[in-house]
Each structure stands twice: as C-alpha cells, then as structure tokens.
Sequence to fold (268 residues):
Amino acid sequence: MAGSYQKFTLGSAITPEQQAFLNQHGFIHFTNFIKPETVTNIIQASEQVQQNWITNKVEKVNGVPIKYGKDVDGSPIVQRFAFINKHHAALDEFSKDPRFQVLLNLIGEGARLGTDEKDGMVFNHYVNGPESSFTKMGWHTDGLRDIFHGQKLNPMLNVGIHLSTLKPENGGLRILPGTHQQNLYQMLFRKKYFLDHDTDENEVAITPTAGDLTIHDGRLWHRVAQSSVTGEESRRRVIYIPIIAGKYEPKNADSPTAFYQRFAGIVK
Fold:
C-alpha cells in the first residue's frame, strides 16, 4: 500500500467496508469531519489555553508533562498539550460530538472515548523553526504504555482530528500498515522506540486536509516525520483522543508522572 490509499466519509454508522479496511490495515481516514470554522475555533481555543499555561507556568496536567517550545519568531508556545479538553469549554464540548460515539463501534462493546484517561485530549502543535523543540517523533506504538504499566494490551484506537492541510513535504504522520497484527516481540523490538527516525520503504504518509479525521490502531508502528520546509509553512496542528476499552482509569491532579514520560526530553 505504498503511496495513495482509500479515504472514506463518516456517516451515522460504520460500514462493513470501513470496518474491513481498518481491520486489514490498522488505520482509516475520514474526510471533512469538521468544518473550516470549527477548525478555526479549536485553534483559537488552544491559543487561549496556551496563554493561560504560559502565564501560570503550568508544567504538568494530571501528571503529564507539558511540552513547551519556541515559535518561528522566538516567542514561547505550548507544543504538546495534555487534557486540553479539561481547560476550555469549547474543547470539552467538541469532545462530546455524537459522531465520536459512532467511532466506538470500531472496537465494540465496552469502548469509550478516553477524555479523562491516559493523556486525555492531546493537542500537538509542530513548527519547524530555529528554536522549536518539537519537530518530529520517532517510530513507536501507542500500546507500549500498557506494557509499561504491567497490563495486558487492551484494544485502543487513536483518533486524530487534523487542523492543518498537509503535503508529504510538511511531515506528519507516517504509518506501517498491517503492523497492528504483529506479535509481541515485533511490537517491542521491530524499531528502536522514539530513537529511530529513518524512513521505512513500507511506510505510508497520511496527508490530511484540515478538518479530516484519522484513526490508527494502538499496536500500529508509526512516527511523525519532520517537515522539510521551515518557518510558517511548516506549522501543523492535530488533536488526538484515544478510544479505549478495559479497566476505567481516570487521571486527576494527583496522578503520578509515568515512568516513560520522565524521559520526554528524548522525544523531539
């Protein structure tokens, strides 16, 4: 599946074709999930949260470290927000969009949107500037954290709401289709977690238009490629919310920082 791939439109129910595509490839791409004005409103909400966090020097939310960086003009920005839905009414409201409930059917019974578990609604803001601290992310799977916590690997899907229109040269999500079906050894050792940024001959570039929604299986190998362009043209924003099953484990202000998150500095 190198290069282009099939894209879908989300309706009132998941179709058998859509379910089959996800089952086979470990990801699925829905176009036009939100309107341009909604994209604008979400970005504006993130900027309001950003200003609040910078002013109040917020370092962690529910135990999750916040990643700060510098914009193209050198001004401070938040580059990775955790639980942003808990810090702005518009983002909390967005997380309750009934169409997310349709997506739960991709896992089935017991699935829920993890707005108060793991890292909640994550907002990533990448920019490739001279002082940016968040331009790329090495190969990894999202399922590793369950193993870190000594838990069995529960079903998990990562829902991405894309707020930027991307071409391959803009960097962004790269996936290895079908690797969600690998065995545990391959999941642990196929790549060097977060340290390996090399292009894989089998990878597929996810190229969304602002407003699109993608889903990838938590067991799927993926990375975030660095933009080959710099400055304002490199700016890209994306929200991630997990769909999870298994034991309900909400986080709060007293939640500890996870072992692997203490080494967040190696994740660029």
In short: The chain has one domain: 16-248+258-266.
